[in-house]
Amino acid sequence: MLNDTIVAVSTSMIAPGAISIIRISGAETFDVLKKIFRCHTDHFEGYRIYHGFIVDGETDVDEVLVSVFRAPRSYTGEDMAEINCHGGLYITRKILTLCYSAGCRQAVNGEFTKRAFLNGKMDLTQAEAVNDLIMADNRDNARLAVNSLSGSIRKLLDPLMEEVVQIISNIEVNIDYPEYDDVGIITSEEIKPMVADWLQQCDHILTVAESSMIIKSGVKTAIVGKPNVGKSSLLNALLAEDKAIVTDIAGTTRDLVEGDIHLQNVTLHLIDTAGIHETDNTIEKIGIEKSMDAIDQAQLVIVVLDASREIDEQDRELLELTKNKNRIIVYNKQDLVDEKKDMGISAANCDIDKLTDTINEMFAGNQIALKQPALTNERQIALMSEARSSMQLVRDALEEGVPLDLINEDLENVYRCMREILGEYNKEDLLDQIFSRFCVGK
Ligand SMILES: Nc1nc2c(ncn2[C@@H]2O[C@H](COP(=O)(O)OP(=O)(O)OP(=O)(O)O)[C@@H](O)[C@H]2O)c(=O)[nH]1
Ligand SMILES: [Mg+2]
């Protein structure tokens, strides 16, 4: 139901704080206020903050400030009020209950933002960005989200949608009104370069999107090697904490040990694995199977070799096993040898800068997603990929000389996908777009 009046506590309810904010949105917002809020007036103007008391009948409950927003100039586009009360858990719940009694319904998750979207205050990508910003736990994620919040994805897609509409319009008018020669007979030869250009821009958008996904989701990174080379020591050095057990007994780690680190250019989800080698020990065998799975699933593999020993058959097998993975090979225990290797590190001494520098360089390109508008989630990327597939069908059809009117369906799908990214599509809208730019009625 869009027209009932909703209420929710917008601040955290985990522990008492200085202030809580209780948000109300909907047509009856001010009727609710009149019932529970005693102040010098009962006419509330937009963009004002009112001082007064929340009351339960005759009894004062709390001294509060209430911010008032009038439709359509509010977050949701509806009449809204935000009660700033004292942040005790009892007080906050009490005021919430009073709002229920005065006619509000408890909002469901995301309902304020959903209303903002449905009332045209923001598009779907901006609504998604609101949640991403709240959930962001590091600088880059927050920057990605705040970029999308400002409507950058619409700006990214607008020119591409414009091109598609341009192509469709030309074809439509050719089909429907062939006698209008001012429109120009557009031939497939003229459309081909437009399609090629569109596909190139789309590829760029998808490349940047991949970077934004890496920034957002981090990189699954498996630390692998034979027993005792110092994998767990490396995990601990990277995390700067004694997370995994380290001993000089080969086969110390059996279960996977995990931890996250935020490097300058990327977040790694690290997995320390059991040393891979031939063994009859049942527990170790299970651990090694898990190591194999971890390699399979990893987006980055750090292969640890022992700089103080010759490379042996086991190392070679591991190098073979990981050769098609995105990997970095490091020589640990370089403190034990005089000869310095390129990727020599010493996990036990936390001398691992070479490794972290290499990882940062590897992901430096991802920063591109912070410097320009980027798609930021699977939903958006899936729709953009679908748009690209449809446009590829158009390109192929043009190559094969299929008549223009037969490619319209694919072009419409390209357009639909992009509008769906923004959360807005209906066919009327496409027709409006097309016919608003041609004076067909002349
Ligand atoms: N000198 C030196 N010793 C190291 C270094 N890194 C680890 N070690 C030692 O090597 C031994 C094995 O270290 P771990 O980190 O447990 O090795 P692992 O690869 O996790 O071993 P498993 O879990 O058994 O597969 C321990 O005695 C560590 O102190 C290093 O950089 N230099
Ligand atoms: Mg270990």
Keywords:
442 residues; Gyrase A, domain 2; alpha/beta; seven-stranded mixed sheet; binds magnesium ion; flat; Rossmann fold
Notes on the protein architecture:
This protein is α/β, with parallel strands linked by helices and 442 residues long. Helix content is 45%, strand content 17%. A 7-stranded mixed sheet has the order 3-4-5-6-2-1-7. Bound molecules: guanosine-5'-triphosphate and magnesium ion.
Strand-pairing-aware structural class:
alpha/beta
Tally of discrete structural domains: 3
Mind summarizing the main beta sheet?
7 strands, mixed
Topology as a string of helices (H) and strands (E) = EEHEEEEHEHHHHHEHEEHEHEHHHHH
The total count of helices amounts to 15
Q: In percent, how helical is the residue content?
A: 40-55%
The global form is: flat
Enumerate the distinct ligands: guanosine-5'-triphosphate, magnesium ion
Adjacency order of strands in the biggest sheet: 3-4-5-6-2-1-7
Question: In the CATH hierarchy, what is the class of the largest domain?
Answer: Alpha Beta
Please state the CA-atom Rg, rounded to the nearest Å.
30 Å
| Named CATH architecture of the largest domain | 3-Layer(aba) Sandwich
Low-confidence stretches: none
Q: Kindly state the mean pLDDT as a whole number?
A: 90
CATH topology of the largest domain: Rossmann fold
* Count of extended strands: 12
Ends: how far apart?
44 Å
Strand percent estimate: 15-25%
CATH superfamily of the largest domain: P-loop containing nucleotide triphosphate hydrolases
